[in-house]
# Entry
Amino acid sequence: MDPIREKILKPSKETRQDILGKTLSYASIFLIVAVVLAIFLFVASKGIATFTENKASLVEFLTGTEWNPGANGPNGKPLVGALPMILGSFGVTFLAALFATPFAIGTALYMTELSSKRSQKFMQSVIELLVGIPSVVYGFIGLTVVVPFVRDHFGGSGYGILSGSFVLFVMVLPTITSMTVDSLRAVPKYYKSASLALGATEWQTIYRVLLRAAMPGIMTAIVFGMARAFGEALAVQMVIGNATLLPESLLSPASTLTSVLTMGIGNTVMGTVSNNALWSLALILLLMSLVFNLAVRFISRKGKM
Amino acid sequence: MKAGKYDLNDTSIMNFDKQKQEIALSTHDLQVYYGNKHAFYDGNLQFERYKITALIGASGSGKSTFLRSLNRMNDDVATVTGEIMYRGIDINSKKINLYEMRKQIGMVFQRPNPFSKSIKENITFALKENGIKDKQKLDEIVEKSLRGAALWDEVKDDLNKSALALSGGQQQRLCIARAIAMGPDILLMDEPCSALDPISTLKVEETMHELKKKYTIIIVTHNMQQASRVSDYTAFFHMGHVIEYGKTKDIFTNPKIQATEDYVSGNFG
Ligand SMILES: Nc1ncnc2c1ncn2[C@@H]1O[C@H](COP(=O)(O)OP(=O)(O)O)[C@@H](O)[C@H]1O
Ligand SMILES: [Mg+2]
# Structure
């Protein structure tokens, strides 16, 4: 019989490799999905217990301002008003993104469009270094530099949302910058050539062509930065003042979901209302990271058109 | 079915005399769908061994779709139904060994796509993966395939230079050399000259004339002069249908179908 025909009909080393590779990657994805699901279910079951077992009110949780889960309010339900922390988390996140975005885009444009190869490499290393610094170091610098600075120039005790945002600004800057650099680099060279050949200036080209083309990528970068800011605990906790009160201003002590969690989780006993209430906060964090994730997907899908 | 000016069922498809002509590849009721979009209809074509068959037609008429189905490059993007017979096997069946099949049915793409490796490594890469380790043997194949692709004289002193430093025409011939180094039976080429200048195009065409002594070639081309220069048979595609298939000479001088005539004489539309 025709040997080639034989070969085509029979499995070979390659087809077996193929099956092995597929099996391995399915196994990995299965494992990861299982772990993620398990975490989700665990956090959700704990977080929901606050409302089912401990009879706290969900509306109060989302809109109430008094956080003292160990005690009951006048209506006999635990005091789980998480609005101050929710506002604190969103406040530092949006402010940090607001501060960081212009700087990140500027730096990224400098790196991709203006600088020499050597300074590009240098900037790249600086950014990678910034990413690698542990958050406790950022917190420490925040405590010794940012807090006094805010106290002297803006007033108040120095602890508050503004200080938290400043610290997060530095922390998310490298994330947003490096992702923006990637998306600018992914813009095909011929877009730029086409624009310049039409007589557009460098600025017009950057503003009207490059940034437009890279916009979905930049939005994704910002959302990633926000996700990082939203989830950051230690550094924020060190500078925000940790008062579970509705912040009166950006300068008054406040708290975030993460800071309350890190402060509280060691001091409560599993199964108690105080502990379950913290899991509810964790559930919000988890749901928010889901929202960020979906936002990224939505943006990149829109960008495809 | 009628779409636009031409009746898509008014077709003329040549069949070969199996006693006299050896069929290298044939399709039976081949249909290709991209999702819901039916992109290719009812392909019943036979391809004669050691001949060049050209696929012509307007852009979007389904030539690439058809060609890419032949060695299952459409597996991940499209649904392909029907049979593709090669050596008495239906290679459109899920059960066949894709990798062995593609070693027999090679492909050269529209844009030259050499790996960013040296000229030599571009050719030896796949061979080594296939277990050919002997240096002398590899060198032999490199020379033979580069000669086969009419590139040897131009690059024999620079075999270790990056393939990306070659001109577009040279890169394309390197891709042809890379494909024939695998020792295929059939070469599928999708507009291999559309990114090349006229001189490189001529060289690639000369190469094809040499190649058809050993290989069966199916080539998609936009360029009708090219089709008439290089091919023995021509198939005219229109809106996902093969309208006419016959000897190249007949297609260009004496087409049986109005649509073909309009297309080859430039009055199409
Ligand atoms: N990957 C794909 N997904 C969806 N539609 C496709 C895809 N590739 C080609 N098509 C469609 O199939 C039709 C035939 O395309 P193609 O085979 O590339 O034509 P040709 O090579 O003759 O120019 C076109 O309408 C094209 O839009
Ligand atoms: Mg095509």
